[in-house]
Amino acid sequence: MAPTSAFVTPSTLAKETTLKDGYIIDERDKAKVAHNEFSDDIPVISLAGIDEEHPGGRREAILKKVVEACEEWGIFQLVDHGIDVELINEMTKYTKEFFALPDEEKLKYEMSPGKHKGGFLISSHLTGEAVANWRELVLFFTYPVQGRDYSRWPSKPEQWKAMVEAYGENMMNLSCKMFELLSEGLGLDKDAYAKSMGDISQHLVVNHYPKCPQPELAVGLKRHTDPSSITLLLQDHVGGLQATKDGGKTWVTVRPIKNALVLNLGDHAYFMSNGRFKSADHQAIVNSIETRTSIAVFMNPAQDAKVYPLNVKEGEKAVLEEPITYAEMNNRHKNRYLEIVRLKKLAKEENWSQEELDLKLSQLN
Ligand SMILES: O=C(O)CCC(=O)C(=O)O
Ligand SMILES: [Fe+2]
Fold first, then answer.
1. How close is the Cα of 54 to the center of ligand 2, in Å?
2. How many other CB atoms are found less than 10 A from the CB of residue 227?
């Protein structure tokens, strides 16, 4: 049976010449910079020599660069990270094969949020979005291992499952190295940061942004911060990931670097560092020339882990009044995002000025 119109994927809609209504964004959300107008402002950090811990060894210099990038941007690219290129190639290959399958096959794994632990989605897992994202995705819950529901992992292409497992494991190991650097950067013991996270959880979001008939009217993934502690993103050569460090005034398109991983910090890192590290403000835009894929690995603390700055310096105010659980932090993050969506919709319907909208947005906590 053909999928109902509500479940026509962007891959199928890409064959039309005009963009469907539900995907048309507001004038004020239009991208300021093109998907392929690449910037070199985002730091690129090599992890070569990260284990040279002696005074004056490479680790010191790497740590310094990581801390600076976390403070200025909350986003940077990692090269010489030690992940096998073969694994990256295979993961990319099977990802592309999956999204090339017919809608019927992909929709077999359609996920109902709250009901299914993982699967295929169009646009987002959130209900209440005013405008859809021009994206399809597959969500895999990978850690803790006992939380995996393999029945939600697509069985085509056949090798994908094993690749996701291996990729998740490699990203877990790399993330643990990065948590050590964040910890040291905050002036703490190497293992303090990861310890505060409890049983670390991980999920993968494999994003697919088909070519779009009217890309200037659509967005691949709306502006957001991730709730995670860190996110490791593998993007292909196309480009479309954009970040801002000044609240949306200026944007940069992250230059794709073959086999590099883009590391961005999420809200958890912002809170744990008492606001010293930025939670990267970012979005993904689309184009009419090439389909784009990206693989995001979200590293999160356990749901019941305590979220509160690890060290509040004398004379400093804590960014949180009291400790909350990660579940609560995540909930607030989601509600805040949906409140922004609601205000923007209202602003459009009631013709608010930019100043009026900005004022309302600044009043959100
Ligand atoms: O596809 C991208 O470049 C960004 C993806 C992203 O930000 C996310 O999945 O949270
Ligand atoms: Fe993101």
1. 35
2. 20
ipTM of predicted assembly, 2 dp: 0.99
In a domain, 85, yes or no: yes
State residue 6's pLDDT score.
56
| 179 Rama class: left (phi>0) / alpha (psi -120 to 50) / beta | alpha
- Across the range 214-230, mean pLDDT stands at 97
Q: Is residue 241 within 6 Å of ligand 1 at its C-beta?
A: yes
- Give dist(CA 268, CA 303) in Å, integer: 12
* pLDDT digits 0-9 by tens, 269-305: 999 999 999 999 999 999 999 999 999 999 999 999 9
Q: Does the beta carbon of 296 sit less than 6 angstroms from any atom of ligand 1?
A: yes
- Cα separations (Å) of 304 from 72, 172, 246, 327? 29, 20, 32, 6
Task: Quote the pTM value.
Answer: 0.95
Number of domains in the chain: 1
The range of the structural domain enclosing residue 304 comes to 19-322
Proportion of the chain above pLDDT 90, given as a percent: 89
Which among 19, 70, 14, 16 is positioned nearest to 42, based on CA atoms? 70
Q: What is the DSSP string of 59-101?
A: HHHHHHHHHHHHHHTSEEEEES----HHHHHHHHHHHHHHHTS
Residue 53 lies in a domain: yes
Out of 58-67, 282-291, 294-303, 331-340, least confident range: 331-340
What is the 57 CA–ligand 2 centroid distance (Å)?
Answer: 33
Q: Is 294 in the pocket of ligand 1 (CB under 6 A)?
A: yes
Q: Which amino acid is at 11?
A: S
Taking the centre of ligand 2 as the mean of its atom positions, its distance from the CA of residue 230, in whole angstroms, is 10
Residue 113, in any domain of the structure: yes
